[in-house]
Amino acid sequence: QVQLVESGGGSVQTGGSLRLSCVASGYTYSNYCMRWFRQAPGKEREGVASIYTGSGSTEYAGSVKDRFTISQDNAKNTVYLQMNSLKPEDTAVYYCAAARSSWWAGCSVAEADFRYWGQGTQVTVSS
User: Fold this and answer.
1) Rounded to an integer, what distance in angstroms lies between the CA atom of residue 58 and that of residue 36?
2) For 111, which DSSP code?
3) pLDDT (tens digit per residue) in 48-58
4) Cα 49–47–91 angle (5° rounding)?
């Protein structure tokens, strides 16, 4: 069975950095959109960064652009989210998720297409 295991969350002060990792098993990264979501209490789940593993193409939510970087290491079956210049509003549970896709769709997929989800990892940014 496909599994995604997240790690790397923690507590940092404003301006700090964290790197989240998502290790996948049970499938290859080719032809998948991998996306990091986050959800804070009382807020809707928000996609923050995506990478299409077939091409390495990435995209970011405006709120994290220029601060977060998503990357992949296919040899390790791992997707990373490097988070720099963290702000209190980045506080949330962060999830990685995978959606089967194609070269022509890339990460232009619906949230419902993300079949596989990690357990989530807490990121807390304090002032």
Assistant:
1) 11
2) G
3) 999 999 899 99
4) 90
Q: How far is 76 from 102, CA to CA, in rounded Å?
A: 22
DSSP string over 9-78: -EEEETT--EEEEEEEESS-STTEEEEEEEE-TTS--EEEEEEETTTTEEEE-TTTTTTEEEEEEGGGTE
The residue with tokens 């390495």 is 56
Distance CA 116, CA 127 (A): 33
Sign of the Cα torsion 22, 51, 100, 47 reads positive
Antiparallel, parallel or unpaired: β 10-13 and 121-126: parallel
Digit-coded pLDDT (tens) for 47-87: 999 999 989 999 999 999 999 999 999 889 899 999 999 99
Phi, psi of 90 (to 5 degrees): -80, -10
Other CB atoms within a 10 A radius of the CB of residue 59 amount to 17
